[in-house]
Structure formats: structure tokens, C-alpha cells
């Protein structure tokens, strides 16, 4: 597990606290995997069977903005401070690497400017956060208008390199296989944006 002084539980799950003004020091990387969740109750049972502890369940609103060559979202989590997440991640169904930086609200205007950014879409969801015994995040997500999904996020850190992150994700995929549906190559925002575009095309 991670040292309490360096990491904290927040709306993002387990994340590094800011201790430096060096932006490179604030960049983090996850190995991520997302899939449809066919049976949420079974997934909760599996969490208990593998000793993945429940942390919290909260509502989140993610507002996505149009920025070049990356993704930017403002995350509003019930009971937690607002965070801005700037990230880059490939779109593929297999486990994938995500490089991201988290900015608190106070730093967002300094980083992204005070002029309102163009909104791409808004994702509303309820998230149940669990942590595996080795600190991998397990998200049981109910996304408004889309249904149930599961997401695994393994943070690359000194005690868990890229290879170990992939091993941890693969182990969780095997453990949760009875509850999983099809893998998801994109993010929730892409699903919602595609649905909006389809509806717009049908009414045009």
C-alpha cells in the first residue's frame, strides 16, 4: 500500500497529493481497463471475496471541455473539492496507459485561463469505489443514460511498475469475469457524445 503522507483518498480514488511546483512531478500514470458491468450485485460479492475494501459511494458530475490533443474535465464529486483533470489516453479495448495531472480548483484558472472553455459534454454518474489489497482502484459506475460499467485503475508508482500494473489488472479481469460484459475502448464522454450526435443526425 501507499504511504499516507504521499497519497490520499479523494473523488479520483487514490491520488498523489501535491508537494511540488514542478509540473513534471505532478504528472501521474495509470493502467486502466473499462467494461460493461452485467451484474453489479455479483461484482460487489466478488469485491468481498477478493478482500477489495469498500471506500465510499458518491455522485460525480464530469464536465468535459474541448482542448487540442488531450482531454480536460472538471470533476465535481459529492463531499469533495472540485478537481480539474488533464489527461491523455489511447482509445482501445485492452488495458491502456493514461497520463494525467490533477489540478485543484484554485489552480485551474492559472493553468487553463479565466475565459470559459467550450463544453463538449457532461457525464453524471454514481461511483462505488473499492480498493484491492494492493491498492488498485475498482470503480462500480452507474452512468446516467448509459447503464452500469466497471473500471480498474492501477497507479504506476515506486512499488508497482508498468508490468506489475498490467499483472494486477489482468488478475482483476479474471476475478470479475462472471460479472463482466463487453470491454469499452472509449470513455463515458465518448459514449454520451456519440449518442447525442446520433440523435442530432436523426432529427436533422
Describe this structure in words.
This protein has 204 residues and is α+β, with helices and mostly antiparallel strands. The protein has a single domain (34-203), classed as Hypothetical Protein Pfu-838710-001. Helices cover 25% and strands 43% of the residues. The protein contains 5 helices and 11 strands, in the order ββαβαββββαβββαβα. The strands form 2 sheets. It has an 8-stranded antiparallel β-barrel, surrounded by 4 helices. Strands 1-2 form a two-stranded antiparallel sheet. The N and C termini lie far apart (53 Å). Mean pLDDT is 87; it is low at 1-24.
Question: Which descriptors apply to this entry?
Answer:
single chain; 204 residues; alpha+beta; Hypothetical Protein Pfu-838710-001; 8-stranded antiparallel β-barrel; two-stranded antiparallel sheet; 5 helices; 11 strands; disordered N terminus
Report the sheet-strand fraction: 35-45%
Structural class: alpha+beta
Distance between the termini: 53 Å
Find the CATH topology: Hypothetical Protein Pfu-838710-001
N-to-C SSE string, H for helix and E for strand: EEHEHEEEEHEEEHEH
Gross morphology: globular
CATH class: Mainly Beta
Low-confidence stretches: 1-24
The count of helical stretches stands at: 5
Q: Round the mean pLDDT to the nearest integer and report it.
A: 87
What is the second-level CATH architecture?
Answer: Beta Barrel
In total, how many domains does the architecture comprise? 1
CATH superfamily: Hypothetical Protein Pfu-838710-001
- The residue fraction in helices comes out at 25-40%
Largest sheet: 8 strands, antiparallel, barrel
Amino acid at each position: 500500500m501507499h504511504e499516507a503522507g504521499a497519497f490520499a483518498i479523494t473523488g479520483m480514488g487514490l491520488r498523489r497529493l501535491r508537494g511540488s511546483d514542478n509540473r513534471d512531478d505532478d504528472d501521474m500514470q495509470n493502467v486502466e481497463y473499462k467494461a460493461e458491468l452485467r451484474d453489479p450485485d455479483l461484482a460487489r460479492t466478488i469485491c468481498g471475496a477478493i478482500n477489495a475494501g469498500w471506500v465510499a459511494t458518491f455522485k460525480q458530475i464530469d464536465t468535459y471541455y474541448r482542448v487540442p490533443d488531450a482531454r480536460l474535465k472538471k470533476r465535481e464529486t459529492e463531499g469533495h473539492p472540485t478537481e480539474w483533470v488533464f489527461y491523455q489516453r489511447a482509445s482501445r479495448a485492452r488495458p491502456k496507459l493514461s497520463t494525467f495531472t490533477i489540478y485543484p480548483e484554485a489552480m485551474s484558472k492559472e493553468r487553463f485561463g479565466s475565459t470559459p472553455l467550450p463544453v463538449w459534454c457532461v457525464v453524471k454518474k454514481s461511483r462505488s469505489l473499492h480498493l484491492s489489497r494492493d491498492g488498485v482502484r475498482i470503480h462500480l459506475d452507474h452512468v446516467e443514460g448509459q447503464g452500469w460499467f466497471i473500471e480498474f485503475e492501477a497507479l504506476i508508482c515506486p512499488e508497482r511498475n508498468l508490468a506489475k500494473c498490467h499483472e494486477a489488472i489482468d488478475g482483476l479481469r479474471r476475478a470479475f469475469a462472471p460479472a463482466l460484459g463487453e470491454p469499452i475502448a472509449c470513455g463515458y464522454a465518448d459514449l454520451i457524445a456519440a449518442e447525442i450526435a446520433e440523435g442530432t443526425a436523426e432529427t436533422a
